[in-house]
Amino acid sequence: MCLLCEMAGSELTRRHLIKTGGVLAGTAGALALAPFPVAAKEKEKPAPAPTPDEALRRLTAGNARYVANTSRNRDHSAGRAARARAQFPFAGIVSCADSRVSPEILFDQGPGELFIVRVAGNFVNDDGLASLEYGVKVLNIPLILVLGHTGCGAIGATIKTIQDGMQLPGHLPVLIDALKPGVEAAMARKPADLMAEATAENVRHNVRRLAAAEPILSPLAADGRVKIVGGVYDIATGKVVLL
Ligand SMILES: [Zn+2]
Question: What kind and span of H or E run contains 196?
Answer without folding.
Answer: helix 194-211
